[in-house]
Design brief:
Layout: E1 3-7, H1 11-23, E2 27-31, H2 34-42, E3 49-53, H3 61-70, E4 78-83, H4 89-96, E5 100-105, H5 110-122
Parallel strand pairs: 1-2, 1-3, 3-4, 4-5
Helix pairs in contact: 2-3
Length: 123
Amino acid sequence: MARILVVDDEADIRESTKVALESMGHTVLMAKDGKEALQVLKGGQKLDLVILDFFMPEMSGREVLEEMRKDKKTANIKVAMMTVARLGEAGEKELKKLKILDFIPKPVDLQDFKARIGKLLKA
């Protein structure tokens, strides 16, 4: 199945997301913040998807995504943003320029989450 990086500053969110993804047969890597995420990404591991928290201290999800898109090795990795924020149309448009495939709302509905992940991996 897929190799997925989950990036969230909240340990319980990381862990529950990992459990859900592993129950679907995926391999999960985790990072607690943006800097750790970039280290994992630059480590050269093949990833099929990054699930990225929008609001994190020190380095936001948007900043991580901007760095990913600048690097040839990570520029084309699929990314979904997971956030409590309800972004307006302008905000979503701006982030879609950075090739975000989906916005997963928190708190996560498990059935919806699994359906979204399935669609993202097929995209």
